[in-house]
Amino acid sequence: MADLATRDKWNKAAATLDLMSGRGEMERWLPFKSRLFGNMEPGKILFASLGTGLDISAFPPGMTITAIDISPEMLKRAQPRVEGYPGEIRPELTDIHDMPYPDGHFDQVFTSCTFCSVPEPVAALKALNRVLKPGGRLYMFEHTGSRYFPFKYMLDLMTAMSRKIGPEMHRTTVANVKAAGFEVTEVDNLFLDIVKTIKAVKPQN
Amino acid sequence: MDHRLYFIFGDLVSNMVAGILIALCAALLVGTGWNMFVAMIVMMALGMILCLFLSLALGILFGAMEIMVPVMLTGMFSGMISGMWLAMAEAPVLSLIWLGATTGLVITCVIWLVNAALRGVSTAELN
Q1: CB-hemisphere CA count at 13 Å for A127?
Q2: A187 vs B122: CB contact, 8 Å cut-off?
Q3: CATH class of A4-201
Q4: Which of the residues B9, B11, B111, B125 would you substitute to probe the A interface, choosing the one with the greatest number of A C-beta atoms within 10 Å?
Q5: What are the domain boundaries of chain A?
Q6: Residue pairs spanning A and B at CB distance below 8 A
Q7: Interface contact flag, B67 A24, Cβ < 8 Å
Q8: Spatial distance between the Cα atoms of B46 and B39, rounded to a whole number of angstroms
Q9: pTM for the whole thing?
């Protein structure tokens, strides 16, 4: 069953997402995202969450990608970017906590600023673990909380103000990935220990 | 740090502007009758919160977390220092502008240094 409160929150955020993230943030992060998404290989790829499709410009060409999002408004705004991609992107309106795919369906899973936004991060990561093949790889571009003073407390303050209308800034995403049953193979800090890429693998057994 | 000139310039200008604005806000709010400790705490909190909102606007041009975190820190320090100063004595506007700009410059440099220490592949969270 869809989480209507989360859907409503992100439907509202869709109108301003391109303005807030489209220039500074996207240009700043594009080289890192292009490098991470360069790990896409032919096969079944899941991308969560598509948003307005800003990340599509960092995808390598020629892939077949199932791209999910909980918000119909986001997917509507993503459509021109989906159509412009030199490959195949299948946008699907799906709650990451309750995906309709069979176990072990995907070869690779990619996320981009997803786990600041989902209400139940460990449950959502367990859902990704379920749909990923044993030995399949998870690649994440995320901003997280910090382990260091004073950044940790600043991110707590930001979260208190942002969580109603947008993302949470203090998530412990690396620990959540491990708690969901993945083996974390690499954490690459891009800005302090806040913006990072995370690579993980689903164990064979 | 980001090596692209646009973002180096953006980081620097964002922090200097934030520092100046908060120092000028302190001049509007804090007077010599204030207790210095109260002025410091009030302007520290106000500087950080005002800069959170300012960083949303600056972030449109220069990036999200890379702007938010240093700009909030600049607001906090600029507010603290200017609040204490204004509680002790009257300060010329030009001096407050210099104070805010210098705070922004120093925080930018500190963040660059801390970032240089923390960025890259980390084993700290692997185990």
Answers
A1: 18
A2: yes
A3: alpha beta
A4: B125
A5: 4-201
A6: 87
A7: yes
A8: 10
A9: 0.93
